[in-house]
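> tool_call: predict_assembly(chains=two)
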Amino acid sequence: NAGVTQTPKFQVLKTGQSMTLQCAQDMNHEYMSWYRQDPGMGLRLIHYSVGAGITDQGEVPNGYNVSRSTTEDFPLRLLSAAPSQTSVYFCASSRQRGETDTQYFGPGTRLTVL
Amino acid sequence: GNSVTQMEGPVTLSEEAFLTINCTYTATGYPSLFWYVQYPGEGLQLLLKATKADDKGSNKGFEATYRKETTSFHLEKGSVQVSDSAVYFCALSAQAGTALIFGKGTTLSVSS
């Protein structure tokens, strides 16, 4: 199993550009989520999905869109990038969205918006 | 609301020293508690977890005990190694259907 994979590893954008961060998992997990990690802030939840066709907002959803057409994939879209979106983005998945379930994280995408 | 507070870093230790990283939480109900570790340039990975009061999670020489009376889940290791240098995150999950809530992370640097 590859686990949770993310592409690209690094990306530089100009303000106003759009892009999609890719996330895939091969563990047949129902629950997937996106976090951003900023210095001194820990990880903050952007969006999550409890299954194909179902998505919802997390703590910091503004400026991001998601969709979940398959169990395996959960892309994160930035429609018009802003410098405030400079961050490291992590995708995670777990078998269910239960309080005891372990979340598995991808290696991250480091995004810089100029 | 639910929250996690962990000690500020960085924590700098010599090899074979004893490690404690404090973590306290605020939550309604009976949360599950986790420690995740992030090695340089990598994503987070689960280090250990405890799902009910008085449980002890352990892995790779690290331990943490779920203390409901003090709402704490402190991470300990008796003898750290250089390879333990990483960022450690305490997290909680308050109930089924809710997301993980993370502390801000504590950077550990171990020198030989």
